[in-house]
Amino acid sequence: MALNKPNNRRGLWTTALLASSMLTGVAAQAQQAAPSGAVALEEVVVTAQKRSENLQDVPVSIQALGEAKLEQLQVSNFTDYVKYLPSVSFQTTSPGFSNVYFRGVASGGDGNHSGSLPSVGVYLDEQPVTTIQGALDIHIYDIARVEALSGPQGTLYGASSQAGTLRIITNKPSTAGFAAGYDLEANTIAHGDAGYVVEGFVNQPVNDKVAVRLVGWAEHQGGYIDNVAASRTYPTSGVTITNADRVKKDYNDVDLYGGRAAVRVELGDNWVATPTIMGQIEKVGGLFAEDRTLGALKVGHYYPETSDDRWWQAALTLEGKISNLDVTYAGSYLDRDVDTRQDYTDYSFFYDTLTTYGAYWTDDAGNPVNPSQYIIGNDAYTKVSHEVRVSTPQENRFRVVGGLFYQRQTHGITQNYRIDAIGDSISVPGYPGTIWLTKQKRIDRDSAVFGEAAFDITDKLTVTGGIRFFKSDNSLKGFYGYGLGYSSGTGEGACFKPSEIEGSPCTNLDKRVKENGNTKKINLTYKIDPDKLVYVTYSEGFRPGGINRRGTLPPYQSDVLKNYEFGWKTTWADNRLRWNGAVFLEKWNDFQFSIVGANGLTEIKNAVSAEIKGAETDFSFAVTHGLTLNGAATYVDAKLKGGYCGKVDPATGNPITNCPVDLDLYPERAPDGQRLPVTPKFKATLNARYEFDLAGYDAFVQGGIVGQTDSWADLRTFAREVLGKQAGYITTDLSAGLSKDSWTVSAYVVNLNDSRAALTRTTECVESVCGGEVYSVPLQPRTVGVKFGQKF
Are the CB atoms for 448 and 158 separated by under 8 Å? Predict the structure, then answer.
């Protein structure tokens, strides 16, 4: 049943509303039957403001998924938890390759290599783990909570938290006593293959001052995309290719292995050191997209498509006191290497069809060869970060948190575009069979001084102000392009000095851009009573500019997000009902817009501005003993302010905003008022869980609904016409289980209705060339699993 078709959408939302009404009705009846004050919600502690605080006392729009909730919702990775965070949207092509956004602050993808820095910061405990290309795909196990901070977090979290911040908080070693556990899971995917998960942890005190926590996991995700038989004949040479040796069912499988080791060392009475090392290997086979012209969950590709994503991080957190001041140091070193292989035959075929490109691909004797291209790539990242901060006592009427931050990121880029049989005379020197080579190194440096101060004007009214002074420094150096035998004016022909990047033939790009400035925040919070507060906030988020990988383009400039917000945190009915929310207006000025241009190179330009209006809310309701309801929803109206033409005025350098309708002259155009891409206007989730006694066993049943309205994959009008709209969808999840003493057994179904909704729609190269082949990244089909676990 294709529940994502547009003509079914009204029925789907009607079904969801009916289900919501039924759940609410059950809750109301249960509430009447329950004695007042018999049940209550547990307190949620977060560290969003660099202090441990009750969620309800923090005047920031936050959603927090605690350890128990993560386990109940069958969360094991990024896409699992993001669907329960309505303020968050994302684009993905496969595991480990996702771009995440908050509150509609999205321009439609960040191109490919050496794109804009992310607009959302991702933290693992105290350390940032947002690499230049995006966030790590961290397996979620033995995690204390996931925090989602909506809106600019520019004062406490910096440049990569322009629109919001995600924080993954691990369980720490404890000297309180021995603890251990394990979980075993088996699952199967509809129309696909089977998978499994093995996870375990041990917490072992060494003595009353030292404890060790070891965590490990192994996972196999079954595939569900079939690579079916296909063939192509190139018009210029007449060469016909087939993929007979690549045909395979369920070829997009994933194998993932990882672990974490942490030590708690109590240094005297006031200091604690927590060194941690964590690593993961994620091997992905196949494409996670379907070609709907071939049928559901099918694609026809000709060359290997794999990724091998390996990373490790060493981190140290040192916490203590100097006099009455809390002092924290957080430092880390992250190393990530991603090896990829990609089919690129769409590019070869459509360029040959449109421009007879294939005539140029010959051997040394001048004979035409198979012009099919594929890409061998490597992305090598490192990230060093240091932060020192000091906080005054939280109970003071006037309190301050402030510190210093430094970060250095590198991105080594290798992209080897191969046509196997071409002659050495047209290959890139040193790379036989390579028609195009990118061999570059990017370095991003950030340093900052930051602080926030809060003052209780009265026992109910508090004002908070913050500022972050920063410096950013972005450089990109190396080689990109063809060999001299193929092009005399580009690539090797444009080199101006010898190679400075190992493996490159010479240097034709060496640029650097520096910026400095500040971001500000001011907040006024009014405590109506101990259980309710309201607040107003003005805050800013900043993203540095940088160097275009296509060196002939000018650098792109920084962009700024300004946020105006009114929010509330409320608790009702003797702490049985928690209802929070916010309404906001955000202005995104001169935002960075990335596209994949000619030759598959990212082009980043500053567009005009955008305005985003919206509201978000979430609630938790302890209806009666055992029955809990949780829900969240976000509405976003994000629009372009002024026309985008994809061109700048050569006299001023400013974007041209009044462009003709002629798509031949302005193919990148988007008119004033155009809806921003990626984010749906409405996204919501509703979950009900009932725990009860069953013949001496602790039992539970749980049901959840997640849904959103439609969205676009791109900002530009022409690209939208090519890619089409991503239809809205609703999915339903169910689970049930039993537990007794130390063990738990459960069964679950994810995406019960087997929705075929598209998470991302894309083409292999620029839409004006490869638009004849559009790919959709679908939701994972219905997945059924069983799980057994024990804790000691």
Answer: yes
Mean pLDDT within 331-335: 96
Number of domains in the chain: 1
Against a cut of 0.85, is the pTM above it?
Answer: yes
Which of these, 472, 418, 469, 468, lies nearest to 442 by C-alpha position? 472
DSSP for 397-435 reads: SEEEEEEEEEEEEEEEEEEEEE-TT--GGGSBTTBTTEE
Check pLDDT > 60 for residue 151.
Answer: yes
Closest to 683 measured CA to CA, from 732, 734, 616, 620: 616
> What share of residues in the chain are helix, strand, coil (percent, to 5)?
10, 55, 35
- Domain range for 219: 6-791
Residue 598, SS3 per DSSP:
helix
Residues 6+ apart with CB under 8 A from 108: 593, 676, 677, 678, 712, 713, 714, 715, 716, 719
The yes-or-no verdict on residue 639 having pLDDT over 90 is yes
Question: What's the pLDDT tens digit per position in 508-543?
Answer: 999 999 999 999 999 999 999 999 999 999 999 998
Helix, strand, or coil (residue 56): helix
Residue 727 lies in a domain: yes
User: In angstroms, rounded to a whole number, what is the distance separating the alpha carbons of residues 567 and 569?
Assistant: 7
Distance separating alpha carbons of residues 435 and 424, to the nearest angstrom? 10
- Look up the CATH number of the domain holding residue 528: 2.40.170.20
378 domain residue, yes or no: yes
Gap between the Cα atoms of 417 and 425, Å rounded: 16
Residue owning tokens 């004949």? 233
CA distance 455 to 567: 19
Q: Is residue 567 part of a domain?
A: yes
Place of tokens 């924080």: 167
Contact 764, 344 (CB under 8 A): yes
Kind and range of the H or E run holding 203: strand 194-205
Contact criterion met (CB below 8 Å) for 646 and 598: no
DSSP annotation of 541 = E
Burial class (CB in 10 A: 0-12, 13-18, 19+), 474: buried
Evaluate whether residue 1 is within a structural domain.
no
Residue 601 phi, psi dihedral angles, 5° rounding: -95, 135
CA distance 478 to 564: 42
Q: Rounded to an integer, what distance in angstroms lies between the CA atom of residue 294 and that of residue 300?
A: 8
**148, 63 Cβ separation under 8 angstroms:** yes
Query: What is the amino acid identity at position 102?
Result: F
302-323 pLDDT per residue, tens: 999 999 999 999 999 999 999 9
In this prediction, residue 573 carries a pLDDT of 93
Question: Three-class SS of residue 13?
Answer: helix
